[in-house]
């Protein structure tokens, strides 16, 4: 008998199972609206032109080798990543109280931050500290904090299903009622999965309560620039909280805005109270990284670093990001217009009110099942769709399929 005979079969990861089912489907009009990756109007992955250019520069740079990077990562990548999140004029950077930890994607940044908080936040070994995540949230948030050892993971109100928008009253009430020093995971922009973000005035209300009640902010920033096309606009919430004096973490991902999905390029930006605090925090981060992946990989970090640190390449990258964001915005406009032209029951204003890669359509599980089984349009059970999966050649089919699902299935 095997020593592992009692190991149970784990359920598949939903979004990757959806993609596997899509690949096995032979229907000629099948559409994949599940996986969160950018696609061109030809429904193909896009290698950003600036990335191609920088990759050539790296290949031709004879000074580069395959030596280990420092444990905390490529220094020029870490500093540039934090600067793009916090802004060139950030007082915290000028005060030398901002640091970064290169991570394996945004997930790695979340996990390293979660591990540090479990060990050192507000005392040692804080497994009982409440972690609040939005309802709904990216499915991995719960698992990352649970696997880091936190025992008390709670939802906070976020999505108002009836009005298909933000439940601000419920969110603020949860902030008021949360125990002091609770940790809140906030989506910096392009909330996943709803695509619904607070306005700047709503962010100010959130920050006021969190500051008054001593709540810790852990931003997840996976879509900077990709949401609105503006790096500064998409980082507004992060920068406002920093300007209000918060100590906070920001998990950054460069998968979407650089198209570097398989390079796993992430950064954990740390805003500390002062430089001395930062030094001690980074020393403990180094210990955590050493026993997790020891040293990070260089290729993706070099691509991002060279781009962010060169004014000409940085300007070109911002143009590439805006190209992606503009296509998503166009698909939102067209999908809403086609559903309205079909007189599809209900309101569809939320499609253009939401932002970023994802849209929470409002389709219920039975309607989603109809979409997949009868129309071969693959989307998450929650009704979330990836707007990048829509193209000029399939949007009519998708709109008609949504119309049929709404009118035929209750």
Structure description:
The protein is of the alpha/beta class and 410 residues long. The chain has 17 helices and 13 strands. A hairpin with a 4-residue loop joins strand 5 (159-160) and strand 6. Helix 14 (311-341) packs across helix 17. The longest helix is centred in the C-terminal third of the chain and has 31 residues, at 311-341.
Structure described in brief:
By secondary structure, the protein is an alpha/beta fold. It has helices at residues 14-24, 49-59, 75-86, 91-94, 105-120, 140-147, 168-177, 200-212, 231-234, 236-243, 255-258, 275-290, 299-309, 311-341, 350-353, 365-375, 395-408, and strands at 31-32, 98-104, 131-135, 153-157, 159-160, 165-166, 183-187, 216-221, 248-253, 265-271, 358-360, 377-378, 384-386.
Q: Give the strand order of the largest sheet, numbering strands 1, 2, ... along the chain.
A: 2-10-9-8-7-3-4
Number of strands: 13
Tell me the fraction of residues in β-strands, as a range: 5-15%
Q: Taking Cα atoms only, what radius of gyration do you get, to the nearest Å? A: 22 Å
Specify the number of helices: 17
- What's the overall average pLDDT, rounded? 95
| Percent range of helical residues | 40-55%
Ranges with pLDDT <50 over ≥5 residues? none
Strand count, sense and barrel status of the largest sheet are: 7 strands, mixed
How far is the N terminus from the C terminus?
A: 50 Å
- What's the order of the H and E elements? HEHHHEHEHEEEHEHEHHEHEHHHHEHEEH
Q: Structural class of the secondary structure composition?
A: alpha/beta
Name the shape in a single word: globular
């Amino acid at each position: 008998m095997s020593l592992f005979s009692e190991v149970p079969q784990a359920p598949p990861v939903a979004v990757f199972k959806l993609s596997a089912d899509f690949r096995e489907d032979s229907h000629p009009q099948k559409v994949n609206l599940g996986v969160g990756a950018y696609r061109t109007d030809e429904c193909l992955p896009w290698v950003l032109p600036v990335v191609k250019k920088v990759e050539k520069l790296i290949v031709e740079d004879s000074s580069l080798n395959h030596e280990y990077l420092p444990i905390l990562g490529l220094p020029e990548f870490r500093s540039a990543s934090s600067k793009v999140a916090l802004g060139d004029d950030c007082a915290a950077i000028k005060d030398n109280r901002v640091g970064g930890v290169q991570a394996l994607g945004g997930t790695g940044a979340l996990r390293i931050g979660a591990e540090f908080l479990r060990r050192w936040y507000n005392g040692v070994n804080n497994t009982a500290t409440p972690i609040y995540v939005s309802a709904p949230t990216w499915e991995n948030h719960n698992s990352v904090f649970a696997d880091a050892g936190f025992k008390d993971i709670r939802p906070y109100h976020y999505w108002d299903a009836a009005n298909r928008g933000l439940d601000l009253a419920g969110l603020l009430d949860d902030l008021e009622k949360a125990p002091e020093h609770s940790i809140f995971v906030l989506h910096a922009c392009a909330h996943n999965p709803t695509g619904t973000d607070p306005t700047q005035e709503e962010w100010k209300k959130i920050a006021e309560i969190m500051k008054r009640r001593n709540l810790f902010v852990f931003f997840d920033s996976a879509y900077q620039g990709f949401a609105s096309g503006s790096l500064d606009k998409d980082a507004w919430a992060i920068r406002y909280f920093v300007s209000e004096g918060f100590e906070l973490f920001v998990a950054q991902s460069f998968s979407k805005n650089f198209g570097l999905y398989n390079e796993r390029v992430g950064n954990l930006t740390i805003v500390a109270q002062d430089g001395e605090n930062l030094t001690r925090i980074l020393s403990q981060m180094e210990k955590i990284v050493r026993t997790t992946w020891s040293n990070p990989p260089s290729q993706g970090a070099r691509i991002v670093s060279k781009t962010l640190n060169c004014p000409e390449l940085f300007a070109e990258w911002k143009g590439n990001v805006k190209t992606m964001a503009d296509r998503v915005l166009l698909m939102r406009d067209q999908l809403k217009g086609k559903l309205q032209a079909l007189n599809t029951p209900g309101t569809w204003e939320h499609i253009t009110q939401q932002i970023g890669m994802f849209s929470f359509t409002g389709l219920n599980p039975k309607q989603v099942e109809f979409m997949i089984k009868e129309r071969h349009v693959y989307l998450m059970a929650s009704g979330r769709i990836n707007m990048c999966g829509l193209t000029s050649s399939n949007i009519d089919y998708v709109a008609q399929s949504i119309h049929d699902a709404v009118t035929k299935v209750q």
